[in-house]
Amino acid sequence: MQTPQANSVEKTRKSVTVVAACIMRPGGREVLLSMRRAPGVPGLDGKWELPGGKVEFGETPEQTIVREIQEELSIKVVPRRLLPYLHTNLWEYEHARQHVVLACYECETEDDLTLGADDEVRWFPINQIDFRSTLPGTREFISLVVSNGWFDQVFIEFESVDSSRNATKRFTVATQPTLYSRYGLVKYWGPVGRFPRTRTEVFSSPIELDEEIFETAKRRLALGYHISALKGPERPYAVLSRIVELAKQRDEYRPH
What we know:
By secondary structure, the protein is of the alpha+beta class. It contains 4 helices and 13 strands.
C-alpha cells in the first residue's frame, strides 16, 4: 500500500523591517498616501498606505526612508522624528509567509508634489479617510502626527427611563487625550439632574479604544438604554457605524 505524498510544500518564512513616511501638507490637514499593489495577497492588494519600503542591508532606517521616497515619488524628504509605535503584520504570499515589522517617521519636504484625483499617490484630507481602505497601522501612525481635535473625537450619550422612580438615567462616553495617552475615554453616568460619577480609562492604541467604545455601547443597549446623542469625526468611522447599526436593530437609536 502506497503512502500518498503531501502535495503541498511548506512556505518559506521571511521577516522584514519596513519604514514608512507620514508626510503632511502645510496646515496639517492632508496626508500623502499611496496605493499598494500585491495581486493575490488578501488584505494587501488595493489598499492605501503611507509610502515607504524595506530596510536594505547596511542602511539606517533614516537612509531607507529618504531613498524610498526619492525612488517612489521623486521628492526629497527629511525625517523629523520616529513615531512611538511599531506595527506588525503577517502576509500570506503564494510561496511565502512574510512577517513585517513596520515603523514610521514624521517627514517634511519642501518639494512641490502635484497629484491628480486618479493617481495612485494622493493627498487625502485626514477627516475624510476611510481607514477600512488602508493597510493596518496607517490610522495609528497618522493619529500620532495630527494635532487636530476632530480626528478621533467621539461623543455618545445613552438614556434610560426608570418608570418605577419616574427618573431618567444617563450614561455618556467621550474620547479625550490624557496626560499619559492620546487614547483616553471618559465615562459619565447617573440620574439626570444630579452630579454624575466619572471614570477615565486609557488605552495604548486606537484599536483598543474603538473596541472599548463598541463594547460599552453594546452593554448599555443590552441594559435597556437608547442612544440620545452621537457625534463623531466627519470621516467614515467604522466603530460608530457598527454602534448605530446595532442600536437601530434594537430600535434604540433616537438622537434628539
